[in-house]
TrEMBL record:
InterPro entries: SmpB, SsrA-bd_prot, SsrA-bd_prot_CS. Required for rescue of stalled ribosomes mediated by trans-translation. Binds to transfer-messenger RNA (tmRNA), required for stable association of tmRNA with ribosomes. tmRNA and SmpB together mimic tRNA shape, replacing the anticodon stem-loop with SmpB. tmRNA is encoded by the ssrA gene; the 2 termini fold to resemble tRNA(Ala) and it encodes a 'tag peptide', a short internal open reading frame. During trans-translation Ala-aminoacylated tmRNA acts like a tRNA, entering the A-site of stalled ribosomes, displacing the stalled mRNA. This is SsrA-binding protein. The gene is smpB. It comes from Mycolicibacterium sediminis. Keywords: Cytoplasm, RNA-binding.
Amino acid sequence: MVNKKKVDEQTRRNNQVVATNRKARHNYAILETFEAGVALVGTEVKALRDGTASLADAFATVDDGEIWLRNLHIPEYHHGSWTNHAPRRNRKLLLHRGEIDNLIGKIRDGNLTLVPLSLYFTDGKVKVELALARGKQAHDKRQDMARRDAEREVTRELGRRVKGMR
């Protein structure tokens, strides 16, 4: 029983979210999500273990049949030396060939883009949740905000009724 608790704590620590892109779900309609590995150097992994990264301006592109993550900001590792990495370098995403071909076909068919949603550790490896997305227009964003407000109000009212306040 004691060993199980240690394993649960270890798993929870290893599956930690480093960064999320909160604006992505506001600016894009998410159609499909993928999990991809990220090719990193040592100091980048150490900086991510400190919990510092930003997906704010990040996006993915397809170049020569490979998928690259651009504008992901991982600050320099503070204990690093001359081996430190460039904070905004392009990083290769690791996907199976079938997944890459599928994504390339979908991107070329419509006006879709690849947007990173979150960056996290899974069993000691850095993964990125990548979304195939379509950009939202301003009126779509307003409709989504109105719908969320209405749903929030409905749940509040139901909570009040259950508690007997009204």
